[in-house]
Amino acid sequence: MSQASLNPGPGTLVRDALAAVLLTMDSASSTATGDWTNVEFPWLCAVWADMGTIAGSDDTVDIQILGADDASGTNPVVYGEFSQYAHTDDDVSKRLVVQAFKPYMQAVATIAGSSPDVTGTVTVRTLLDRLDEDSTA
């Protein structure tokens, strides 16, 4: 009888099943602001923006990552911003390495265009999550 294992086998990409979701956009058409999410402790992490559909012919999406001292957004700081998503960037994922030094994080997406309709998710994960030979830091 073979023994079952939860460990990934050789060549399997590591996935962080407990990744914190900073922002979910489902047909967003203007600025989308995620809730302040407790990431518990300072750490070097990877924030992933996984864009779904960017429907408009001239839509753009700018995503900024913020940190704060508490869930009300006290003493906010900007950790960084993703390069702009254009209307041609459907199903594109981008990674931003962040040195988080505050216990709460938030993502804010500014969406522009003549008829914006955007779907996507922003999550914070360990640095090793989703790495392969094509990833860049």
Can I get a quick summary?
By secondary structure, the chain is mainly β.
Unreliable stretches (pLDDT < 50, length at least 5) are: 133-137
Helix fraction by DSSP (H/I, runs of at least 4): under 10%
Mean pLDDT: 84
List the helices and strands in order.
EEEEEEEEEE
The biggest sheet, with number of strands, parallel, antiparallel or mixed sense and barrel status, is: 6 strands, antiparallel
Distance between the termini: 43 Å
Classify the secondary structure makeup into a structural class: mainly beta
What is the C-alpha radius of gyration, as a whole number of Å? 16 Å
Strand content: over 45%
The number of distinct helices, counting runs of at least 4 residues, comes to 0
Query: Which outline best applies?
Result: globular
Number of strands: 10
Give the helices and strands, then pairings.
Layout: E1 20-28, E2 32-33, E3 37-38, E4 43-54, E5 60-68, E6 77-81, E7 85-86, E8 93-100, E9 104-112, E10 118-125
Walk me through this protein's architecture.
By secondary structure, the protein is mainly beta. The protein has a domain at 31-125. The chain is 0% helix and 48% strand. It has no helices and 10 strands. The protein has strands at residues 20-28, 32-33, 37-38, 43-54, 60-68, 77-81, 85-86, 93-100, 104-112, 118-125. The strands form 2 sheets. Strands 2, 3, 5, 6, 7 and 9 form a 6-stranded antiparallel beta sheet that branches. Strands 1-10-4-8 form a 4-stranded antiparallel beta sheet, with no helix packed on it. The chain starts with 19 loop residues before the first strand and ends in a 12-residue tail after the last strand.
